[in-house]
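Researcher: For the annotation table, I need structure tokens for MFS family permease. Please keep the output clean. Sequence:
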Amino acid sequence: MVGPYRKLFNRPGVKGFVIAGFFGRMPMSMLGIGIVLLVEALTDSYGMAGAVAATVSVAFAIAGPLTGRLVDRYGQARIAVPLVLTHGVALTSLMICGAFGAPAWTLFVTGALAGGSALSLGSLVRARWSHLLGGSDDLHIAFSFESIADEVIFVAGPALVTALATMVSPYAGLVVALVSTVIGTIAFAMQRGTEPPIVTGGERSGSPITIPGVALLSCVFLAVGSVFGSVDLITVAFAEEHGAKAAAGLLLSVIASGSLLSGLWYGARRWKSSLRSRFVTTLGIFALGVSPFALIDHVGVMAPFMFLAGIAVSPTLITGYSLIERLVPARLLTEGMAWLSTAIGFGVALGSWAAGRLTDLYGASNAYIFPLGCALLAVVVGIGGSAWLRTPAPLVSSSSHE
């Protein structure tokens, strides 16, 4: 099953940007839960923790497409380095404000700065793959590999940050995230040989979000992101209610493990069905996987069901990014992919805020109704607008694409 992935790394420079990109985006699975754990430890309120985490996510979501447009216009290296340094300063400031008992509003201000300067490094990595492999069968495999890498991150990240925050210090997980993103992003930016060239010519005033298919995918991923954000927070509270708070990271890692394995299998296959039909199918499986959570009242029982829920995550993300690559012109590709990250970011923010409120009011088990509702909404929107996801034929014929 790993054979198709091996050939991706024969091209010069690929290993360098893949490894740097992996470590640079490792904190994407650590930042939200790290902030939740820190703020909850400081305030003893999941509502407050969810609100600060939501602020970070909203700021990231707003800035994402703007950052993507700057990258498309000026190049990856010129934008990535100053942004990641700004992000490092802002995240450090947030931790300092917490350590010295600064007013609550300072956590929101520094959190907004940290989120606004966070880079959607996954979009930049996928843009490099598209530059190197555009029109080739191998692009499907590359996007699948990146989804697998994301899931490895989501397996390791929550468990690591939870262990550090609960066993070492509430700040320890965010410190590790900070070091990883700064060093990884700078190393990624230094890989100039694989950086996509700036595409000149063509109309630049438009935005990919005006393309109906991109707008539809963004709406779907808004709902999907709400599931991610709410499940993260509710699961921390669920584990704490059952006297096993340190197990929260492991439960979230179980979801990512299911997604990792399904992504590995999905990317190695040559698909005859269209991207559009695969996308709506995986959305349905995703909603089905989330549905039992509200009925479970034991940490050990929850683990296998979270694994099953994770199975649809990677295929959904892979097909979403593959559809964007087909729907968006090359000169706007980074911004187009950033819109998916933005939609997920807004969803995570909404999910974190709503889950914090619902958990404080009704308890963790009852709060799991919210992510189920969001998953069902994603299915309805995806099926209802699937006609907009018809894509042009690829430059090179492939049985794995529509």
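Researcher: And a one-line annotation?
Model: The first helix runs from residue 3 to 6.
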